[in-house]
Design brief:
Largest sheet: 4 strands, mixed
Helix content: 40-55%
Shape: globular
Strand order of the largest sheet: 2-1-3-4
Radius of gyration: 17 Å
Oligomer: single chain
Number of strands: 4
Order of helices and strands: EHEHEEHHHHH
Length: 202
């Protein structure tokens, strides 16, 4: 197996951290987004939506979408469990992971796509939409500060894929000049905790 990725992109990083937590070694092949390699006919056979990451399986099948890839590895190597240990916890992890994807990860990415020069000439840009997305992402920082005033992790006292998603979105927010503020001490405590894990450097 191997994974096609762009190392600086946040979604492939989610998979790398997930694999590092599992202790799973993987081969990676770099896809150059600036050179539009993800739009090549060959890559479109792997993922018709031209997005990374993509997992190439030993049987020749391809699996895309970040959480689907992580779910696959969760099923083939359950320990340590990163999608929840009990029925309720699994539902909580699903809920918080989805919230961070919809209300943090996506607006962060859309702000970057629509307000910077990185995608200029590669994708249509609507700066006004990007600015609105930046406001949404900034609000999520405040939401997280409140959340972590009462919780050690995204779900209680349990490290999960929801923490991975939130971490990668938060750190990618630097491209939009959004960072944890000095007064957001609970969020900073959580972030320091994430950075102390060996998987952080994956």
């Amino acid at each position: 197996m191997k994974i096609y990725e762009t190392r600086v992109a946040p979604n492939p990083r989610r998979v790398r951290i997930f694999l590092a937590e599992k202790g799973i070694e993987m081969a990676f092949e770099e896809i150059d987004l600036k050179q539009a390699e993800h739009h090549s006919p060959d890559f479109k056979k792997k993922n018709p939506f031209s997005l990374v990451p993509v997992l190439e399986m030993d049987n020749g099948d391809y699996l895309s979408e970040t959480v689907a890839i992580c779910r696959y590895f969760e099923e083939i190597q359950p320990d340590p469990v990163l999608f929840g240990r009990t029925p309720e916890e699994k539902a909580q992890v699903e809920m918080w992971n989805r919230r961070s994807e919809l209300y943090f990860f996506m607006p962060t990415g859309m702000c970057f796509q629509h307000t910077t020069d990185y995608f200029k000439g590669l994708k249509p840009q609507v700066p006004e939409w990007g600015k609105l997305c930046r406001i949404q992402a900034e609000k999520y920082f405040n939401f997280l500060e409140t959340h972590f005033s009462e919780h050690q992790f995204m779900v209680g006292d349990y490290y999960s894929i929801a923490d991975i998603t939130t971490l990668c979105a938060l750190e990618f927010s630097k491209v939009n000049n959004l960072r944890v503020q000095p007064e957001q001490k609970h969020l900073q405590r959580w972030l320091d905790q994430m950075r102390s894990r060996p998987s952080y450097s994956a």
